[in-house]
Design brief:
- The chain folds into 2 domains: 186 residues, D-Maltodextrin-Binding Protein, domain 2, CATH 3.40.190; 117 residues, Periplasmic binding protein-like II (D-Maltodextrin-Binding Protein, domain 2), CATH 3.40.190.
- It is α/β, with parallel strands linked by helices.
- Helices cover 44% and strands 20% of the residues.
- It has 11 helices and 10 strands.
- Helix 2 crosses helix 9 and helix 4 runs parallel beside helix 11.
- The longest helix is centred in the last third of the chain and has 21 residues.
Length: 317
């Protein structure tokens, strides 16, 4: 039904984008360095957006300070529909709990526009590990008296929070070993220095297919179509859902008509069969939906993860 709505609305949305009193070029600000998955996906969307609207859409990278530089830049931009932030869990949710003083307000300085993509997290161990299920790992962790090493991409990252949330549900504690990014965390897992970790499916899928790592459970409400043999954590008795996601937000006070028009344009790209198929091959799922649905999603993420940041007494300062 929603796809039919998008088809009906697309003509209106494109007209609104054409007639918006904005600068000629639409700028999508990415808070990460060029070359990463967020950058690559945003560039694909920008290309399709240019084709759809007839107005140039470009990607600008403003990395640094956990996304704070890019967020502050967009927060201060003119609300004329020419500048959008590619928001992430860190920028729109986690930073709020990690930093006592942010140079931007995630809740007041932006208006949600549209979800883009998300990649569910997956519970992984080394490919030749004797552990064949999550329950086996939990049992083993309890015998080690909380000394089983759990790796993560860093303190306060979604994989870290998902791991601690899982540990709490499973009734275990682990020796958390944070790294500066997912690459060194994976190297530690492969070398046997850590036993398990949560990773985004998009970065683990090729390692799983190659047998380098073993997926024991997906932190999603349903199994991933590309790896249907891996059960969800919920199926195994652990209600853990977590993903690495990205979506567009605009400066506060951006006209509602402009926001809705951009939402409908982005949704028409996300629901295109070729685009969805390309994302699925990378372990990524699209996030089509209305402005209100994306706003509700962000609020749900804050309600889920900010209490966990507080419980762990995490701080970036």
């Amino acid at each position: 039904m929603y796809k039919n709505f998008i088809k009906l609305a697309i003509v209106v949305s494109v007209c609104c984008l054409h007639s918006a009193k904005a600068q000629e070029t639409t700028r999508l600000i990415v808070p990460f360095a060029p070359g990463g998955p967020t950058d690559q996906i945003t560039r694909l969307i920008a290309l399709e957006l240019t084709k759809l609207t007839g107005k140039p859409s470009v990607v600008e990278n403003k990395p640094g300070a956990g996304g704070t530089i890019a967020a502050q830049y967009v927060a201060k931009a003119k609300p004329d529909g020419s500048v959008y932030l590619v928001g992430s869990p860190s920028v729109l949710v986690i930073n709020q709990g990690l930093q006592k003083t942010l140079p931007y307000d995630p809740e007041k300085d932006f208006v949600p526009v549209s979800g883009m993509t998300h990649s569910p997290l997956i519970f992984i161990v080394k490919g030749d590990s004797a552990l064949e299920s999550v329950q086996q790992l939990v049992t083993r962790a309890k015998t080690l008296r909380n000394l089983m090493p759990m790796g993560s991409a860093g303190n306060g990252t979604i994989p870290h929070l998902a791991g601690t949330y899982f540990n709490q549900q499973a009734g275990i504690s682990a020796l958390h070993v944070p790294f500066n990014g997912v690459a060194p965390a994976l190297l530690s897992l492969l070398s046997g220095d850590t036993t398990y970790m949560f990773d985004t499916l998009s970065t683990s899928i090729e390692n799983i297919k190659a047998g380098k790592v073993k997926g024991l459970g997906i932190a999603s409400e349903k199994r991933f179509s590309g790896l249907p043999e891996i059960a969800t954590l919920a199926e195994q008795g652990y209600a853990v859902q977590a993903s690495s996601w990205f979506g567009l937000v605009a400066p506060a006070k951006t006209p509602q008509a402009t926001v809705v028009a951009m939402n409908q344009a982005i949704n028409s790209i996300l629901t295109a069969a070729d685009f969805s198929k390309k994302m699925a091959a990378m372990g990524i799922e699209t996030m089509p939906g209305s402005v209100d649905q994306f706003a509700a999603f962000i609020e749900a993420e804050r309600a889920r993860w900010l209490p966990e940041v507080t419980r762990l007494n995490l701080s970036a300062e």
